[in-house]
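Fill-in record for Peptide methionine sulfoxide reductase MsrA.
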Amino acid sequence: MKMKLSLIFPIVATLLVGASFPGRVDSKANTSAHGGKTEIATLAGGCFWCTESDLEKLPGVIDVVSGYSGGVLENPTYEQVSSGKTQYLEAIQVTFAPEQVTYEQVLDQFFRHIDPTDDKGSFVDRGSQYRSAVFYHNQMQQQVASKFMMEIEDLGVFKKPLKTELRPFKTFWKAEDYHQDYYKRNPIRYNYYRYVSGRDSYLDEIFGDNRKENPVTLRQMIDAKKVLTHGKTYTKPSDEELKSKLTELQYYVTQEDGTEPAFNNAYWDNKAEGIYVDIVSGEPLFSSTDKYRSGTGWPSFAKPINDAFVVKETDYRLIYPRTEVRSRFADSHLGHVFKDGPAPTGLRYCMNSAAMKFIAKKDLKAEGYEEYLYLFED
């Protein structure tokens, strides 16, 4: 069993001077000093230093408190909880303004900053006290959380089954003072712990390493996958199916991260109106309305149709790092994005024709992409 503090660095005695013992926290919704109604969400996602930091960044969140939930022992201490013998989980209580942010949006922020597929711990912290859970306070929270978690499961973005527990809230005990706002009080130590924990590298792998600059919510991904008018979903076939479906070049580009020849591919000079979709899954990727002639010999676009369908990752296959572009659900290698494109984005999405299928404007309805006809309206 690993304990965060002893794993990375000892708690110095000075931190304990003036620290208070935990106290039970009232979880009822009330009226805040801000003058509006507030609600409470209780969540466990591993290290509460990290979950506190991540949830406080969500607009509409008023306060986040680190503590312990899920056990029965009165006034548990950090040492008791970290032993793994108390049934408590490291947790946070999130006070938020429902007029500004919904309970689902709080859950969305939470799930995009944890590993919900691990029921044996969380990243470097191992043990039942670090597993993830949603403690619902009322029937509404239970219903919202249950539905949202099923949608996340169906989305498949985490690539493994969810193991996050959905449990009724009973008690929450505030952790010792030195745990509160730890990321603010001890930024160097916190950043070092967070880096070595592997949390951010995992999240970059799942959501793309541009997730902070260009965040895409789970709700956006869920809605994008449904495709508003047809309820269409996007999945990746088995490797056997892919080999039978794709040409040798298409398989090489999408599955082996290959690159097709410049000026000798299907769409580099295509001027027809329409959209480009993933050759593997059919995910809508780019529109002819954003296509331009870059002179590189590959189809180039200023932006995707919807950021929810693309993931950006750092590619180190060459001497210098590049930003790779992959499809969200099929995980197909599409190409790379560069910062030498036209206004207003200044970006050049340099794609492989072999990774895409072109659907002409006149065929959008027949092919199930009628909702993208708006792209070609004046």
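KEY FINDING: The first strand starts at residue 30 and ends at 31.
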